[in-house]
Amino acid sequence: MASRAKVGGWLQGKTVRKGGIVSSTSNTRSSTPQVQSTSSTVFGGGVKDASGRTSEYFSMDDQCPVCKSDRYLNPKLRLLVSACYHKMCESCIDRLFTLGPAPCPICNKVLRKLAFTPQTFEDLGVEKEVAIRRRIAKEFNKRREDFIDLRSYNDYLEEVEDITFNLIYEIDIPKTEARIQAYRAENAALIELNIQREEAYAQALKEQEDAERRERETRAMELRREEEEEREEREKGRREIIDKLETSDKNATKIITKSRANAAKRTSARSTSTTVLQSNAKLLRSRAAQSTAIPDAPHVPLEDDWYAYEDMFEMKGSGYEDFLSEAVRKDREGIMRGGGYRIEEAWQRALLGAVAALDLPPLSGLPTPFHVDSGGDVIMASS
To answer: Which backbone phi and psi does 66 adopt, to 5 degrees?
Structure first.
């Protein structure tokens, strides 16, 4: 097996061609440019990281606009993007900006060496828009709950989009930057609060993913354990059948049938207990998730004086004829009265609910489907 090449400098690794991977010790020269990369995953559109995302884009047709060097002349050519979104090779960046800030040779904007970053997207316009939107999203991070109504939230989103549009297409840059500075000064506390919220949400999401991963691992271990127990159970049952056949003088068919029935009962009991444990664990997890995601509402005690209405009615001594009373009367074994149930309490609660709102004045200013006659009786209007 070939040994791995030592990594040194920024670009080391296998030599790559458009047609495939060849040995770095090959002495043949081809007209196809050769590219080297630090990543083990190299493809025609750039370098991918471990997650499969493009960490740096490059093309076989790359050429430095300053020194005109290309991959044919320099297989290790690496282009970086400046703050003004112009590409330059590392050699030109070292030559022009090592001594300090200097103007861009393309647009004359003053640049620093540390401001150059790798290119992620093929289109530099997309690269610029993504960078600007990331910058704006860090400061304009208000949420829907920060506004009193949906209209205010939509106006805020429209303002953010206007600022982003101006920065992308370089429209009124000084005025747009002044708007950003004014917003930052006015909403500094809220910006910091929303940053903390985002960090807390990211942490909660990470913890949830870790919990789900641990749960999957636990389920896999439990499944392996159950499979092992079933295998041992089958082996044990087979040995029991053999021992019984050797020592018993009963019918072999009956012995085998009885042993298989006992094994089926044990398997059913084990699966039932496992199902119950899994359902209980799932219920506990769902309750824990609800308790963490939804805060408990503050307790508001009942302000109505329930027992202030006892003088507004008088309960009949002989009781009332209803299906509950009849069921209690027919309960000779006392099952319905076993927990201290008294039918009189049900009657009292029903009467209290009936007279609780009689002292409230009727609503005014609304059309009512009834009227009161001279005798004080309420007469419903016909439809």
So the answer is: -95, -55
